[in-house]
Amino acid sequence: MGMFETYRCPNEKCPWNSTGSKDDQCPECGSELQSFGIRDGATLMGKKNEVKKIQTPENQPKIKEELKEETQDEEIEKGIFKGYNAKKNNKKCIITFNDTSLNVKTERMHLLGGQGEENNIPYSNILIVNTKRHGLSKIVEIKTAAETFKFTVFKTSPFIGMLNERIQESKNPQTSIQPQENSSAEKLKEAKELLDIGAINQEEFDEIKQKHLKNL
Description:
By secondary structure, the protein is an alpha+beta fold. 36% of the residues lie in helices and 28% in strands. It is rod-shaped.
């Protein structure tokens, strides 16, 4: 057998342990595959057989259970979600719903030195929200005009529901104020017309006027 350069997913928590080609992305978590050296065909086949042993059903439920326990219901009520940032080698992140934007804090990339990263995504800038299934989890894609963010979010359904609600609120910040003003103005106009034709007296008109002037 010939010599091959092999590529694997760098994310230690990702259940996908097979090999791929250069410039490929991990089918489970979306991370870019990284080279782990040149192997001959026999060694590569041995690695693949070893991978089959690693990817057991016993391992996968353990990962799934870990995802379930990460985010508590009390945190969700406060708009706080935990997950992994797929574009940052699946480092852990905390996503918080603020009044006007989504705040994302990702832990530092390296154990020694370096700082974490923080992003604010205004709800009004979000164009599309998609989800893509990768094995046991779902990748949430949040697209803006400038960038696409990708996260594995624990409790995906409530996260998507809350995000869509905030996006809609950002598009309709004020509701039902102007129609109320128009309604009061129309009532006053109708009352004046009734006064002019003698259908109501001045006292009745003044009472209607005082009632609707409060809404103007």
